[in-house]
Amino acid sequence: MASLFDDSLRKIKFLFKFSGMQLEKKSSATILHIIRYRWLYIFNFLWLNTDVIGEVFWIIDGAANGKKLNELTYIAPCTTLCMLANLKSIFLLLNEDELTQLIKNLREMEKNEIGNENTEKDKIIEEQRGFLNFVISALNFWNGMTVIAFSLTPLVLMAVEFRKTNEIELMLPFLIVYPIDPYDIKYWPFVYLHQVWSACIVVLEMGGADCLFYTCCAVIQTQFRLLQHDFEGVISGHESEFQEKFEKLVIRHQELMRSVNLLETIYTKSTLFNFVSSSFLICLTGFNVTSIDDVAFVLSFVTFLLMSLLQIFLLCFFGDMIMTSSMDVGHAIYNSNWYTAKTSTAKQLFLVQIRAQNPCKLTASSYADVNLRAFMRILSSAWSYFTLLKTIDKD
């Protein structure tokens, strides 16, 4: 049976390849090696952030010159998402040692399961494989749709305007300050392509970091479920046989907890910014949808809003899966035939059960747990900011 982890990594490898992060190519501390393995990432980083700086200058200039609120909020969600993509990719690279160790751990755990033919276990793995493939495909599709929507909207509006007036009015996907006139026909094609590739970089970096997170969470949850299955059947007729099986299960449990801690180290800081920024992203995008009159731009921001909601929901959903599956180990022990075992055996199982009651969890830099409750709090905050913006806009 194909490895769930490696099978999923193959499906997201292109995201890391074109973003320049190179998932399993580790660079050393020397400048030569960093340039050799990260040259594309450095190129993309500089390419993207020239636009980010221009967006920030546009917002500052717009605020100084008294532009309307809906004009200022037009580019703000895009700028926020660019910063989030930067942080996600940077923290992945800064924690590449932990990432390498995590990948090694997950592969080793899956390798240990190979050869253990069991219909119920196979069903668990295949169920998770189908779900994870669906999530990755859906996320990639919607990210692609968002890029296409923003990229094509100016062209559609230009075509509509040309049909009405028989004149071409050059437009761009994003409002950015440049040292040149971006609407000069000499520069416009390059600026247009520059902005489109910047949008692609954001989607590649966000998609790569998020899909890797979902994959690791799904594999860890699968291993917790397999561990639950084995704990339910750990009681056997011979004490020596139980002791051997029990020790192996405890080691597996410890390895799973270490893997969760590694995942926490890799993602905890970027998740904090993700939590904080998501409320603003959802709020600002929702405000744009309700305040912009142009249907083409409204459709672009609707796709952006749905992408933002999907991204933070999946982040919280997979974090919640880790918590739930780690606590279910205690339920599995309770469902075993512990009451038929010796007192010493029951005590050993009881200790594991007590540990399982303290869930393995991912956090936003210890500020908040990553679970579905956090998602509801983010939505609540976004709604509060949205109503405040609408009130300010009316005034």
Automatic annotation (TrEMBL):
It comes from Ctenopseustis obliquana (brownheaded leafroller). The keyword Membrane applies. This is Odorant receptor. It is found in: Cell membrane; Membrane. Keywords: Membrane, Olfaction, Receptor, Sensory transduction, Transducer, Transmembrane, Transmembrane helix. The chain crosses the membrane at residues 39-60, 72-94, 131-152, 196-220, 272-289, 295-318. GO terms for biological process: signal transduction. InterPro entries: 7tm6_olfct_rcpt. Belongs to the insect chemoreceptor superfamily. Heteromeric odorant receptor channel (TC 1.A.69) family. The keyword Membrane applies. GO terms for cellular component: plasma membrane. One of its GO terms (molecular function) is odorant binding. It is a multi-pass membrane protein.
